[in-house]
Amino acid sequence: MQIEKLTLDDVATKKRRYLETIFSLGDGHFGVRDAIPFTGAQTGNLPIMLVNGFYAVNPIVYGERAYGYAKNHQTIISLTSPRLLDFKIDNADSRRVDEWNADLITTDLDFSTGILMEKFRVRTVSKKHFELIVQSQMVLDGSHRYIIRYTLQSLDYTGKLELKRPLHQRIGSSQANEDPRVAERDAPLDIDAQAVEAQYIQWATVTANQVVIQRDTVIDYPRDFDLSSNKDGFDWHGMLTAGDELTWSFCRQVSDINEPLSMTHLQDYQTLNKRVLARFWHHSAVEISAKKLQKGIQYNLFQLFQSAGRNGLTNIAAKGITGPGYEGHYFWDTEMYILPFFIYTNPSIAKQLLKYRFSILGQARERARELGVDKGALFAWRTINGQEASAYYPAGTVQYHIDADIAHAIKLYADVTEDTEFLREYGAKIVLETARFWLSYGSWHERNGRQQFCLFKVTGPDEYTALVDNNYYTNRMAKENLDFAAWLIHHQYVEATLEEANAFSTASEGMYLPYDQHKGITRQDDNSPRMPIWPFEATSKQSYPLLLHYHPLTIYRYQVNKQADTLLAEMLFPEDQSNAQLKRDYQYYEPITTHDSSLSRSIFSILASRLDQRAEAFNYYMDTALMDLVDLQGNAEDGLHEANLGGSWLGLTCGFSGMYVTGTQLHLANHLPAQIKQLRFRICFRKRVLEVQMRRNKMQVRLIDGAPLNITINGKRQQLEGE
């Protein structure tokens, strides 16, 4: 498979704040935005480093508060970028605004090596000219190191040259912004700078009791330049002659949170990175005949790989480690949109992401009690440390479906990997506690002439329809959660009584799933289909997303969806409904969905594929696969849409190839659109590596590694034999 490079020709604009996001580098633990090195060139930009899970706490101030409201903001901290390097010549200092102006000529991000290579033409206020080449990459050995090399060539300047590399300078703008998706806040920090041979900085969050240590070392510099260092950084002084080309190289290492720095020797990191990424692409290979999509999907998967926490204590934030949007919080996005990719391709990473949920199970139990549910656990809707940080509960805390989302991801992980040890030690305990929540939260009521299990006052994935009774998605997911918990008890994965297992089964079997007999559609909830439809024709394009232009109570009065809700449940459980029912539901909900959420389009693409509406599926998929590269939502400058990156993989696998799992059976079906002549991708399934190859009217699955396997292709059972 050809591994691509991302260049300036592949992105929407050359605006620096946008490019900072798109060309971000990370290793799951910390991320570095692609900032121009000069500190005087940062007006309006966000030249920062982010550490996954490193946050500060600030009280949430309510005009009126009530019992159980979230108490504190948790805000990821913006740290000094390791890209900063300032130059000074006679009458021009890059620390001052607009005295060194850099025009970007080329940028290449290589997905096979992780190397980001950039070339700038530089013009100073004193009319001197330089060429600056910057090469950077993460070291992917778990040591959390970032290597950067600057090569400066003078085109017409001869004279003194001074350099300064600042180590703890907080610059950039925290621009006032009412968009709740951005939400940048000041974070109180203590800094303990120690000037020693290898430069150490200790960052400490007073409010969260966290410490991160960074060490900056000089790898290479011109030996005829004088070097000095202090607690603020490194300084050089020397002479530069026109035509000279000089190089400086640095390494920044960042410790794990509340852990010492590892002291391992810096090895041949470029060879190591090639090996790590070759292994990643071996299991994650995607090849599409459409060149633009090929590059787009590889970029998305590469960025997911860079963003995923790997220590069992961190997860994937809504913006990953590419920007501080949503304050660095973890949502349901990971379990429902991102984890499937890792489960099928890199299960070791998936396991660590799920272990994070286990690490905060105690806080989830406490939250359930705080909300009046006497058994089980309720995971926070948005969080870093496990405590709820959503200040707006109608579209936050009350999205109880996150419990079932986590249980669903655990079930998928177990079905795909057969990792019974994880299930016994971690997963089953989470599933049991979330099932106990549903049993305590729900209640029995008469529906359709019989007693059924109901869930009142919940909010589903569609945040434009809040605090409803019997949201279909929530009820369907809880139904699976309860059934899975009963299965785990019966198979002795977790300790609980048979009486409790039977109660779970009874509630699951009796779960009320709302349906409108008159309209012949699956109801989103008890009341939504009875409300007036949003006046779309009278709403200007400038009024979207609605959440930024209308009071929530205005939106809640209408039938209007921010994203797929009922349809998401139908995507997850394809055997629940006939194609005829799916078609009616799709045709009903599509016109009232705004796609104001980046999570929406991938689901519509998948369902359009299943309905064999292949042209429509392709159009939705194009928006999904290239969302950040074309800046479809208009806010990529604040960070990537991580869930949508995962959604782009789901669109290929669950959509175009119709992939889903029931029990031990893998199902595939060919829905390839005409715009794509050929699609090939790999997955790991039950200790095997499979390669799916598709053309317009042909689907073939190869067993690359592992024992023979029975799967279902286009409705027919086939046995795969090794080659």
Write the layout of secondary structure elements.
Elements: E1 5-7, H1 16-22, E2 25-26, E3 30-32, E4 48-59, E5 72-80, E6 86-89, E7 92-93, E8 100-110, E9 116-124, E10 129-139, E11 145-154, E12 159-166, E13 190-194, E14 199-205, E15 210-220, E16 226-230, E17 233-240, E18 245-254, H2 269-284, E19 286-288, H3 291-307, H4 333-345, H5 347-359, H6 361-370, H7 401-417, H8 420-441, E20 443-447, E21 450-454, H9 472-490, H10 498-509, E22 515-516, E23 521-522, H11 552-556, H12 566-572, H13 579-589, H14 600-610, H15 614-625, H16 642-656, E24 660-662, E25 665-668, E26 678-684, E27 689-695, E28 698-705, E29 709-713, E30 716-720
Instruction: List the quaternary state of the chains.
Output: single chain
Question: Averaged pLDDT, please?
Answer: 94
Q: In the CATH scheme, what's the topology name of the largest domain?
A: Glycosyltransferase
Helical amount: 25-40%
Describe the structure.
This protein has 723 residues and is an alpha+beta fold. The protein has two domains: 5-263, Glycoside hydrolase, family 65, N-terminal domain (Beta-galactosidase, Chain A, domain 5), CATH 2.70.98.40; 278-452 and 473-513 and 600-713, Glycosyltransferase. It has 16 helices and 30 strands. The strands form seven sheets. The protein has a nine-stranded antiparallel sheet with strand order 1-8-9-10-11-18-15-14-13, covered by helices on one side. Strands 7-6-12-17-16 form a five-stranded antiparallel sheet, with no helix packed on it. A four-stranded antiparallel sheet has the order 2-3-4-5. Strand 2 (25-26) and strand 3 (30-32) form a beta hairpin. The longest helix has 22 residues, at 420-441. The two termini are 19 Å apart. The mean pLDDT is 94.
